[in-house]
Design a protein that fits this description.
This protein is of the alpha/beta class. It folds into 3 domains: 147 residues, FAD/NAD(P)-binding domain (3-Layer(bba) Sandwich), CATH 3.50.50; 170 residues; 87 residues, no CATH class. Helices cover 40% and strands 22% of the residues. The strands form 4 sheets. Strands 1, 2, 10, 11, 12, 13 and 19 form a 7-stranded mixed sheet that branches. The chain has a 7-stranded mixed sheet with strand order 8-7-15-16-17-14-18, with helices on both faces. α1 runs parallel beside α9, α1 runs parallel beside α19 and α6 packs across α8. The two termini are 41 Å apart.
């Protein structure tokens, strides 16, 4: 008989959280610690959503999105998880840029960027200060007409080199572009500039395990291999969730699934107002990603001077279309040293990440898809040779993921790595106005994506749920 992954689950809970990305995990943890009866369901066999990892032979453990996040992650984990998790959040010291316009290494904080912009790029100190202050003072309730490109032009007119310095890491972090509202850049950039880029020592697997332990301490009922097939409503309010072959009653539902999947598939558009559905249909998904995972031999190593995070490009200038093109010119290399997992066998690993379009991958037949993945690996190894000499001969394992990979494992619509564009945030926040007790805490609006954005959105939504249930 197939295993019953809901064995022992109750017939009713205060809250059902659908999906165990960082926003879902955080929402469940906060509400569990507040004394509510919480059921957390995850369709995959692992918790974490995009905060995930996978193992391969010879002791290789690859992190999909570990490098990196702002210092605020440490503060949020201390407050909403525990001190033990926060203590493992450490800085990445070697952030590098290498492209035809400049090559430099930085701790990626405001003090160093101020020095770079004034001394290396020749910008007046007052202009730099005004730029940082304007970015830091942005908030969701401001007028949103200015784009990120227009924001840069206001302070650094015609300076394509400065745009590249300021934009490439943020595009890597949350998929934002020069055409998106400036707030999607300003808030995230300012978070990083406070104290630089951080990572979690111990690896994603240890982080999720520690979070799972905390959930259990807070009496959250955590279930894997459990899919939310339908959110049932009655008279404008949440009633229950169909989980696998069971219907479980609840007072509130928090969906950590993709926003559009939540509205159109799990709930159904027929229960929403027409104007709301029209607004939801206009929400654009953010782009997806490709990655190449590479491992050196057991007795081989990477020179620490190579850095932790490397933004490399052969393109003459920063352009959104070039970042998404199948003809890849820009790659972000994450270098993982044995210090990433000091408790495990020493391994030196590399993950190359590029932004990607779903349409470039979805229509390939099996033979074309296999060939395209092999080409992705081959061109990545060629690009890596510049930074890891003789990489092609030294790499003993390589594997590629594509937007189709992300769609398969996460069930994110179109394999979206960063949720929705900015307009998705208002639609996400508007769910409980449509259906009482229904909330969304997924990756939306660009500013609520990435590890810190997801955790903080989970905090916001958990407070909303608490207010509704009281």
């Amino acid at each position: 008989m197939p295993k019953d992954f809901l064995a022992g689950a109750k017939d009713e809970y205060d809250v059902i959280v659908i999906g165990s990305g960082l926003a879902g995990l955080t929402t469940a943890n906060i509400l569990g610690s507040a004394g509510y009866q919480v059921l957390l369901i995850e369709q995959h066999y692992k918790l974490g959503g995009m905060a995930t990892w996978f193992k391969r032979p010879h002791g290789h453990v690859f992190d999909v999105s570990l490098h990196g996040f702002p210092f605020g992650m440490k503060k949020s984990c201390r407050r909403y998880w525990n001190q033990e998790i926060a203590d493992r959040i450490i800085p990445l010291l070697g952030v590098r840029f290498d492209n035809p316009q400049f090559s430099l290494t930085t701790p990626y904080d405001r003090e160093n960027f101020t020095e770079l912009l004034t001394r290396h790029f020749g910008v007046e100190h007052q202009t730099v200060t005004q730029f940082f202050d304007a970015a830091r003072n942005m908030n969701f309730y401001d007028e949103q007409q200015m784009t990120t490109g227009e924001f840069f032009e206001k302070f650094f007119p015609g300076r394509q080199d400065i745009i590249r310095l300021l934009m490439e890491p943020i595009t890597y972090a949350n998929g934002s572009t020069l055409e998106d509202p400036a707030i999607t850049y300003g808030i995230v950039f300012s978070n990083f500039m406070s104290k630089g880029v951080y990572t979690f020592q111990g690896g994603t697997d240890m982080l999720i395990e520690m979070m799972h332990d905390e959930l259990k301490r807070n009496n959250v009922d955590v279930r894997i291999n459990c899919s939310a097939n339908k959110i049932n409503t009655r008279r404008g309010a949440v009633q229950s969730v169909q989980v696998n072959d069971r219907t479980i009653r609840c007072r509130s539902v928090v969906s950590n699934a993709n926003l559009l999947t939540t509205i159109f598939k799990i709930v159904g558009e027929e229960v929403f107002d027409k104007d709301y559905i029209d607004e939801a249909r206009n929400v654009r998904l953010n782009n997806s990603s490709t990655q190449v995972y590479m491992a050196l031999g057991e007795n081989d190593s990477i020179d620490p001077a190579t850095g932790d995070l490397l933004f490399s490009s052969t393109a003459d200038r920063f352009e959104t279309d070039l970042l998404l093109s199948r003809d890849i010119t820009s790659r972000t290399f994450s270098f993982y040293y044995p210090s990433t997992r000091p408790h495990a066998n020493p391994r030196h690993l590399i993950v190359s990440s590029t932004n990607a379009n779903w349409d470039d991958w979805v229509h390939l037949d099996d033979e074309g898809y296999k060939a395209s993945k092999e080409e992705l690996i081959d061109t990545t190894l060629t690009a890596l040779e510049k930074y890891v000499p003789n990489a092609r001969e030294r790499i003993i394992f390589s594997e590629a993921s594509t937007p189709r990979t992300f769609a398969h494992y996460t069930q994110h619509q179109n394999g979206a790595s960063f949720g929705t564009k900015f307009e998705g945030l208002a639609v996400s926040r508007g769910l409980p106005e449509q259906i009482k007790g229904l909330y969304h805490a997924g990756s939306v609006g660009i500013i609520m994506s990435g590890w810190l954005g997801a955790i903080n959105y989970g905090v916001i939504v958990s407070n909303d749920v608490d207010a509704q249930l009281m």
